[in-house]
Every structure is written in C-alpha cells, then in structure tokens.
Write a structure and sequence with these properties.
Mean pLDDT: 80
Structural class: mainly alpha
Helix content: over 70%
Largest sheet: none
Number of helices: 45
Radius of gyration: 63 Å
Number of strands: 0
C-alpha cells in the first residue's frame, strides 16, 4: 500500500511542491463552482498560475512536521487539503523518510476525507475539481473504502472525461471490476482506456488486461486475438523482443504463458496450430510452442513438453529454430531424469544435423552443441555396445565409430586440432570393436601419422600394426614388412619396435622363410631398446625351428640359451619365465617319448625325471612323473613301477591323477605276487573311490586268495550289514552269493546268523534262482537242525504244564524252519524237512510218555496218570506217523532218497505190523501208484 501511495503521489502532485507561499496568496487559487456554469457541460477548466520560489533553509522533515501541524490545527477544508497535498509531495520526494507511521497516515487521510467531502458539498474549490475527486478517491482507497473510491473515480470520468487524470481513473475502475470478478464490465472499461488513453504504457497494460478479462469470461478466441495484439505490439517496438525494458519483459512472458495455458487446457500444440491458422503466421511462433513446452515442464509433464517441441519440429522441418527446440527436448528429458529418453533425444539431434550441409546451416553455438552431444552420444553408444549382445554390439560400435570419425575430421578443419588424433583413435577402436578391421586400421593410421602433435601417436600406430598382423595371411606380406619398418623409422625410440621385429620373425618362420625370419630376429636383438624378453624371443625362433624339425636336443639347447639371457642362474631350474620353461620341458618330454618308443625305458624314465628340474608348469611336471610310472608298468617292471607310483602319490596328493594311482598299485601288487598288499591298498583308499564297497569286496577276494578267510568274511559281513534291499534280481543274487560264500567258508556253528539272514532275504525277495533257493533251503535245514537240538535239550519235568509249553514253543520254531526249507528246497530238501518234522512230533510223544511222574502216587493213580500221558502223547505220535507216511508216499512219485528211507525205517519202528517188511524198487504205472496210495491210507 505504501508503494501504491508513493506512485500515485509521484504522478499527480509533483507540481504542488513549489507553492511554499500558499498562506500569503490564498485568493489567487479560489474557484467558485456556482459561478462557472449551471451544468457540467458549461463548466470550464481552471488554469492555475504558479511561480517557483527558493525554499527556505529548513530540513524536509521540519517542513513536513509543520504541514502536518497545519493540517491538524486548520479549520478551513481548503487549507487542510492544501496542507495534505504538500505533505504528500514531501513524502514522495523524501523517499518515505519523514517518520510517519502507517497508522498516522491513515488518520490523516480519514481527516482529509471530511475536508474533501465538505468542499464537494459546498460546490466551490479554488483548485482543480478533477484533481480533488482523484485525491478523494485515493483517500478512500487508502483507508480501504474501495466502493467510495471507485464512485469518485467514476464522477471524475463522468465530469471530466478529457482530464489528464481520466485515463488513470478509467484504468483504476477497470482494475476494480476485474478484481471483483466483473470481467464483462472490466473488459468494457479496459476498452475505454485503450480508446482514450494517450500514454502508450497505459494502453499496453489495458490491452493486456482486456485479454485476461476475455479469458476469464471463457472468450478464448477473443482473448487469444487480444494477446496476439499485445505480442505483435511489443515485438514491433522491441526489435523482435530483444530490447524489452522495465516490466515489459515480464508482461511479454506472461502473455506467452497465458497463451500456453489456454493451449494446454484445450488441445496442446494442436490448439496453437489452430490459433496461428486463425491469426496468421507470426515471426515469433516458435516461442509459443516453446512456452507451452515450458508450461508442461513446470508441471513436470515431461512427455507432453517433449511432444510440443517435437510437434513443432515435425510440422516445420525447415524452421531455423528447430535446432534449439531439439536441444530443448534433450534438456527436458534430462530435467525429468529420463536418461534413456534423453539419450534418444541426443541421438536424434546428432542424427538430424550429421549431414555436412545440415551441420553447416547451424550457428556456431549450435555446432558446438552438436559436437558436444555427438561426443556424448558416441561415448554412451560405445559403452552400451560393450554390454550388448554381439549382433547389437556391432551396430552400436559402428555408430560410435562414425561419430568419432566425423568429430575428428571437424577438429582437423579448425585452427587448433589437438583433439583430432584422440578422436580418430577412438574411431579406430570403435571400428575394431565393430569388427571392421579395415576401417579401424585406417583411423588408427590417421591418428598415428596425420594428427600433428598427437601425444599418443605411437600407440595408434601400434594398434594399426596389430590389426595388420591379424589380417588374412599376413605372414611374409610385403605390406606388413613396410608397416613394421615405418613404425620403426617414425618411432625409433619406441620400446615396441624390437617386439614388432621379433613377431615378424615368428611369422616369417611360420611361413617357411627362415632366412627372412633370421634377419628380423637379428634386428630385434640388436635394437638399442630391446629388452631381455624381446632378445629371448629371437632365440625362441631358433628353438622353435629345431623343435618343429624334431631335433629336440638342439631345441633344448636354444631354449636354455633364451633362458640364460634373462637369468644366468636359469640352468639350475630357477627361471622366472614360465613360458620358456614349459617349452623347454616339452622338448625334454619329447626326448623321453622318443626313447620310450624305441624301447629304452630306462633312458625314457631319466628324461621324464629331468623335467622336474626345469621348473615348468606343474601340470607338465606331474604328467612327466606319471608317464614315467606308466612306462614302467608297460614294461612290467613291477617293483620300480610301485616305487614310482608311491612317490607320485606322496609328491602330488591333491592332483587329479593321484586318484588313479591306487588302481595301478593294486595291479602292480597283484602282478608282483602280493595279494595282501593289493588288498591293503584297496581297503586304505576305498573311501576315495566312487564305489567304496566294490573296492572292499575286491580286497576280500585278494584276502581269500592269500588265505585270510576270516578277515575277508568280516569285510563281507560288514558290507551285507549296511547294504539295503536289492533293487533287482542281479543285486539279490549278488548279495545271496556273498552270504553263501561266508557260510561255506565258516564253521557251521559260527555262520548261523548269516544263514538266518540268507533265509530271511530269500523269503522276502521277489527274485529267486535255483542257486539262491537251494542255498536258502539248505540254511533253513541247518537252522531247523539247530532248533531241533534246542528242542531235544528241553526236558519235560514237573510241573509238566510249564515245561511242556517251553518244549512246544521250541517245537514250533523248528517246524517253521523245516517249513521254510520245504517251501524253497528241491525234492530231497522237502523229504528232509518232512522227516525232520515227523521226528520232532515223534520225539515229543516219546518225551511226554517218559516225563517225570508226581511223587506219592499209588499204583492206581500211577496207572491213571500213565493213561493221561498216553492220551497227551498219542496225537503227536499219530502226526509223526502221518508225516513219515507222506514222506514215504513220495516213493510212488519216483522220489527215493535217504530221508524217505529214514521215514520208512521210522514207520517200521512205530508201526511194525504194516511197515516192517522187506522192500524193493519196482516200476509202477500211474494207475498202480494211485491204487497204492489208497491202500496205504
């Protein structure tokens, strides 16, 4: 508010300061309104003549204090108003330095309003009434009474339309209407200002605000027309917006922004197209799109901002400002952090102006920008190509190479071309990565020999030379020889020159040109900067030549000479050059192989052992030691082979080949007649084999061979104890065979557990063979005999019930075993089982009858007790007879064996009346067999 007061005071009251003699000549300023005319039309302007007088020697603050006192003490309204005007002027001139607080100023203006209104009501005033109305409006505005302020301004405009204060009043009226939201009223009021104002700045502001009034009424077409008028006017007056002063620049920018806002709320860039189609093309049209892009950017609508710039570029491809808009697209994506899109925009910019004519049309700053972006794009493309798939990488490297090459060429066109060599070298590297050897060599050569002052020219020349080495069939090529010579002549002090000669010597040797190769090798050795490795390389050419001729003795000599150059102590085997040592070791290796092939195993082994002294790669030394042992094995020198194998395992415990030593030692021990040592070897290293138990079982076979059956059986037993159920018939047969072997080689009383396992496994298995069934049946019979023996050992003592129960349980165990044998065995096994079971029941009947009697029985009781025992024993005896009879009946089926014979003998004892007679073997027909069976039953 203070600023507004100062501005108004400065504009309208500058002329009042000179009237310091106001109190002396009051009549000269008197105006009687009633005497000037009866209507507003008859009123005449009042002209005041004012004379300037020197101000008294008094401070401005003191003058202001006196005018303030005059204002406070005077009773005449005109005096008070005049004092206020002069006080206001002093404020304006002094820059608010008169110590009046806002509260004091407000009080003064409120008091002044009373005087203003009093004068207006009296109808006479010695000053200008339009000025009085303006001051009254100002006072009302100052105290915040906007309504009264606007009323007085309207009075001013209505009474004095030609007053020099009227345009300002009209603008103030329009501003009030705009601030109240009365945009239609404001639009009309601004139009009044435009029509009547003589001040250009007021007209421009009014036109600008009229556009805003139209915009607020949604008259977008009219608003855009008005805003274009504003821009046209400022464009014409400021040399194309290049000479804007004061607040004009802000107003122009605001005008562009409101047009951008209008476009953004409709169709974006398309709306601007339509505006320009309606208003006509403008020389500043690109700025409209630029500001719309800026508006979107401020809203972080990065994609929309880019789209506006891209739209303009696409629609006006030949516009001179397109480069700036393309550059702005890059900036927008960067501002949003969209690096991928920014990179594409950079590439688009660079591609758009890559052609020479397009580049030439750019301004100097734009050309500099193109070079900057091209370098950035090239670097990014190169980096991304290094991480891409081979197919994509080739394209990326080619693109980067094109940019680097073009940038290098541009550098050469400039007065200072310090970067040309570097860029050409980058181009060469990119072409190399892209697989274009020819282009790469070309750019490396440019950087090396055509970029004057390039500090890394020798490196570029070396790169070109390396490429030429890799070109098809370079050996012996005159072009390669010329390149090597050019390198040596241009960079005589470069340390790589001798290596170039040494490499060429190797190539010529490979091409079958030993004379030329020797010449190059000599150049390498005699070069002043030849290093020890480079001189050795020349000797290596000689060594390799002898090696390829299979003159391994000569080759060894030359390789040792090469080693001697680098280190005199090399012959002792302490050289630090692994490559030469490896090759030296290979020459000795070939000597060993030659001796071995000729049958001199002793000399071959000596050569193999010499390799360890060379200090070559560990793998060569290991293989040599191993092959020495293998040669001894082939020569059937068992004891030396054993010693060599044992030494190998001790020296190289972690080598992969060490895992095969054990098997070779087993072979050597076996062939040397040491089965126990072979077994010990297998057992000791079984855990290192893929099938540890296979090794242990083989060891058990060697132990059996050596007579250590018990130890072998323990191994087999451990194996069977941990092995799971067999997965197929072969595994079942294998397991059962091992059990049978243990049983067969063990005393009967020590193999019962193994027999039990054999029987149980056979019963549980779904796979059977004649052998496994026979073994299981035999074991079941042995187990049954053992159970029968335990049954026999149980005496029937008193109390009879308890002892009888124990005996019957033992009976059942034995019977179960006989049943197992009967189910798995052949006819003889079944006969054996039947006989065994019958004898069990027979024995039980006998033992019952012979059991202890209770003491104290009289004869009658003893007789009765005997009858009871007989009743208990009789069923068992009958069962025994039946079983023996069944066994005997097998005779009718053609089965006769010792167990059938024993059953017949038992029947003769138990049933002599029927079975105790002489028999002989007769051939019966099937019908007779059936009849005999019926009779015997």
């Amino acid at each position: 508010m203070r600023m507004l007061r100062s501005q108004v005071s400065a504009i309208f009251f500058v002329g009042l300061l000179a009237a310091s003699a106001w109190a002396e000549t009051p009549a000269s300023f008197q105006v009687n309104l009633g005497e000037d005319g009866t209507t507003i039309g008859e009123m005449r302007p009042v002209f005041l003549e004012m004379s300037s007088r020197p101000l008294p020697a008094i401070s401005t603050k003191e003058v202001a204090r006196r005018y303030q006192r005059l204002f406070e003490e005077a009773e005449e309204p005109e005096v008070r108003i005049d004092a206020l005007h002069r006080l206001t002027n002093l404020h304006s001139l002094s820059g608010d330095g008169l110590d009046l607080s806002p509260e004091q100023e407000e009080i003064i203006y409120k008091e002044a309003l009373k005087s203003y209104e009093m004068i207006v009501s009296q109808g006479r005033y010695q000053g200008r009434l339009d000025e009085l109305l303006y001051q009254t409006a100002k006072a009302y505005a100052f105290i915040g009474n906007e309504t009264q302020s606007i009323t007085r301004l309207k009075q001013l405009v209505g009474l004095y339309p030609q007053s020099d204060l009227a345009p300002e009043a009209r603008f103030r009226i329009a501003e009030s209407a705009f601030s109240r939201g009365a945009y239609t009223e404001a639009e009309i009021a601004y139009q009044q200002v435009i029509q009547h104002a003589k001040r250009a700045d007021l007209k421009h502001k009014a036109l600008y605000m009229q556009g805003w009034s139209q915009y607020k009424q949604h008259k977008l077409g009219m608003a855009s027309t008005t805003f274009f008028e504003v821009l046209d006017d400022y464009y014409a007056r400021s040399e194309g917006f290049t000479a804007l002063e004061g607040g004009s620049e802000d107003l122009v920018n605001d005008t562009f922004r409101i047009l951008a806002l209008m476009a953004s709320r409709q169709g974006g860039a398309r709306t601007l197209d339509q505006m320009l189609a309606e208003q006509g093309v403008r020389p500043y049209d690109y700025l409209l799109y630029d500001r719309l892009g800026d508006y979107y950017l401020a809203k972080r609508r990065y994609a929309d901002s880019v789209a506006v710039n891209q739209h303009f570029v696409d629609e006006r491809p030949a516009h001179p400002r397109n480069a700036a808009l393309r550059a702005q697209i890059v900036t927008i994506w960067e501002a949003g952090g969209f690096e991928q899109q920014a990179q594409k925009a950079r590439e688009a910019f660079v591609t758009a102006y890559a052609a020479p004519n397009a580049y030439a049309a750019l301004s100097a700053p734009e050309q500099a920008l193109w070079q900057q972006l091209a370098r950035y794009v090239a670097d990014v493309v190169y980096r991304e190509a290094g991480q891409a798939s081979p197919m994509t990488a080739e394209q990326g490297f080619s693109q980067a190479a094109g940019y680097y090459g073009r940038l290098g060429n541009l550098e050469m066109d400039q007065a200072e071309s310090s970067e040309a060599g570097k860029l050409w070298r980058l181009a060469g590297d990119a072409w190399l990565q892209a697989g274009d050897q020819q282009q790469a060599q070309s750019y490396f050569t440019r950087a090396a020999y055509h970029a004057e002052g390039y500090g890394e020219a020798a490196d570029a020349a070396w790169a070109a030379l390396l490429i030429e080495r890799k070109s098809p069939s370079p050996a012996g090529d005159e072009a390669l020889i010329r390149s090597v010579d050019r390198f040596g002549e241009t960079f005589p002090n470069d340390a790589r020159a001798p290596s170039a000669h040494a490499d060429l010597a190797n190539r010529l040797l490979a091409a079958g040109k030993p004379v030329e190769a020797g010449r190059e090798a000599i150049l390498a050795v005699e070069h002043p900067r030849a290093t020890e490795p480079q001189r050795r390389a020349a000797f290596l050419v000689l060594g390799q030549s002898a090696y390829e001729r299979e003159d391994y003795v000569a080759a060894e000599k030359h390789y040792r000479e090469a080693l001697a150059i680098a280190e005199p102590e090399a012959a002792s085997g302490n050289s630090t050059d692994p490559a030469i040592r490896d090759q030296l070791a290979r020459t000795i290796y070939r000597q060993a192989e030659t001796e071995d092939a000729e049958g001199d195993v002793t000399r071959a082994v000596e050569h193999f052992r010499r390799i360890a002294e060379v200090g070559a790669d560990r793998s060569i030394t290991v293989n040599a030691h191993y092959d020495a042992a293998t040669a001894l094995l082939r020569a059937e020198k068992w004891q030396p082979a054993i010693e060599q194998l044992q030494a190998f395992r001790e020296d190289y415990p972690r080598e992969p080949l060490t895992s095969t030593i054990s098997e070779k030692l087993v072979l050597a021990y076996r062939e040397a007649g040491e089965p126990v040592l072979a077994a010990e070897e297998l057992l000791e290293h079984a855990g290192q084999r893929s099938s540890p138990w296979d090794a242990r079982l083989r060891a058990s076979e060697f132990l059996v061979e050596a007579g250590e059956t018990r130890r072998a059986n323990m191994i087999v037993g451990d194996y069977l104890a941990q092995v799971g159920a067999p997965g197929d018939a072969d595994e079942h047969l294998s397991h059962q065979t091992l059990r049978h072997q243990v049983i067969a080689s063990s005393p009967d009383d020590t193999a019962l557990a193994m027999r039990t396992a054999l029987v149980e496994r056979e019963l549980d298995s779904q796979w059977h063979s004649d052998e496994t069934l026979a073994w299981a049946a035999q074991s079941a019979l042995v187990l049954a005999e053992a159970a029968s023996a335990r049954f026999d050992a149980i005496a029937l003592s008193l109390p009879l019930r308890q002892s009888l129960m124990r005996k019957r349980r033992a009976l059942q165990t034995a019977v179960d075993r006989y049943n197992q044998a009967e189910s798995m065995g052949d006819a003889e096994a079944r006969s054996h089982a039947l006989y065994g079971k019958a004898e069990l029941f027979r024995t039980l009947a006998r033992d019952i009858m012979q059991s202890d009697r209770p003491a104290g029985l009289n004869d009658l009781e003893q007789a009765q007790y005997a009858i009871l025992l007989e009743e208990q024993a009789y069923p068992f005896e009958e069962k025994a007879i039946d079983m023996h009879a069944v066994n005997h009946e097998q005779v009718g089926e053609g089965i006769y064996n010792p167990w059938v014979e024993r059953s017949l003998a038992a029947l003769a004892e138990m049933f002599p009346g029927r079975y105790s007679r002489k028999t002989r073997w007769l051939e019966w027909t099937p019908e007779e067999v059936d009849y005999a069976r019926a009779e015997t039953r």
